[in-house]
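Support request from a user on the community tier.

User writes: "When I paste my structure tokens into the form, the page sometimes reloads and wipes my input. The last time it worked, I copied everything first. Here is what I submitted, just in case something in the input itself triggers the reload:"
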């Protein structure tokens, strides 16, 4: 069940802080709004506010239009992806341990991942802001896989870029499958790891 579907089990959201430094409540609200936009892509601000259990006035103080809300969620989602990758500490431990941290970190933000997948458009990368952030994310993973290939851990007949894209595709597909109720949230990281490792290990 999505965050916006269980209002009776949640505390009301406080007003969103206007700074880039987000509190846990801010992140919980943005995850709920992201999922609400995926589930109700044509919803008005009033309908989105109702879906996440807050007043329209509170949401309006944060974002005055749907377009502004989508842009802010896109930026937040990209920030979470980069933060999760940094926290994965790709240079520490064994390749498998680092990969596990990457998968767990990305899956920890399922709602934002689903939102980015749904609202990512063919021309998104024509915007330098998103192109730069996506390049930083993929280049870090490319470098990780290339290093591990040179160490003999991952197979070399598949390029590092292809390994990056395969991992991203697996994570994103599992996020969506979990949202649709096709796979369980528990154990999802292990499923992604097993599927990826079975095809990638040398």
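"...and here is what came back when it finally went through:"
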């Amino acid at each position: 069940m999505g965050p916006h579907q269980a209002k009776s089990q949640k505390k009301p959201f406080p007003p969103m802080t206007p700074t880039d430094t987000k509190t846990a409540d801010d992140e919980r609200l943005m995850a709920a709004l992201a999922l609400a936009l995926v589930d109700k892509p044509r919803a008005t601000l009033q309908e989105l506010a109702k879906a996440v259990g807050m007043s329209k006035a509170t949401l309006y103080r944060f974002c005055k239009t749907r377009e502004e809300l989508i842009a802010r969620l896109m930026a937040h989602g990209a920030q979470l992806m980069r933060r999760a990758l940094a926290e994965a500490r790709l240079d520490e431990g064994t390749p498998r341990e680092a990969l596990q941290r990457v998968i767990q970190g990305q899956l920890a933000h399922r709602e934002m991942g689903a939102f980015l997948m749904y609202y990512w458009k063919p021309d998104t990368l024509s915007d330098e802001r998103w192109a730069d952030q996506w390049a930083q994310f993929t280049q870090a993973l490319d470098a990780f896989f290339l290093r591990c290939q040179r160490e003999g851990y991952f197979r070399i007949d598949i390029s590092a870029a292809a390994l990056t894209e395969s991992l991203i595709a697996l994570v994103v597909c599992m996020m969506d499958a979990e949202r649709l109720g096709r796979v369980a949230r528990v154990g999802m990281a292990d499923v992604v790891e097993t599927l990826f490792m079975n095809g990638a290990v040398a």
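Agent notes: The reload is a front-end session timeout and is unrelated to the input. Residues 84-202 form a domain with the Tetracycline Repressor; domain 2 fold (CATH 1.10.357.10). Residues 84 and 133 are 13 Å apart (CA to CA). Escalated to web team.
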